[in-house]
């Protein structure tokens, strides 16, 4: 299985990475968690997160920094509202000439 194969089916990616449904939409699997330093919550985690064509992540507020990496598939529009009133978008994808970036920090 090659993630760069344009004919790769979403079900193959989900099975190949061992993903499960995410409560906010899409599919995920936690791949790393930092040990808590005196608290309940670790300082960091990393997940695989996958949205198939037509899927969306539900709008939500985050209470920690999120690093988004784009690896394959169609570009992803990442909507942000840093102040809670306006909206800005970041486009994740491979085409730097079209304004896409492979990484965004939220």
Write a short abstract of this structure.
The chain is mainly β. Helix content is 7%, strand content 29%.
List keywords for this structure.
7 strands, mainly beta, Jelly Rolls, two-stranded antiparallel sheet, 2 domains, 106 residues, three-stranded antiparallel beta sheet
Number of DSSP helices?
Answer: 1
Distance between the termini: 30 Å
CATH superfamily of the largest domain: Jelly Rolls
Tertiary shape: globular
From the alpha carbons, calculate the radius of gyration and give it in angstroms. 15 Å
The average pLDDT value, as a whole number, equals 92
In terms of structural class, how would the helical and strand content be classed?
Answer: mainly beta
What is the count of distinct domains?
Answer: 2
Amount of beta strand: 25-35%
The parts where pLDDT drops under 50 for at least 5 residues are none
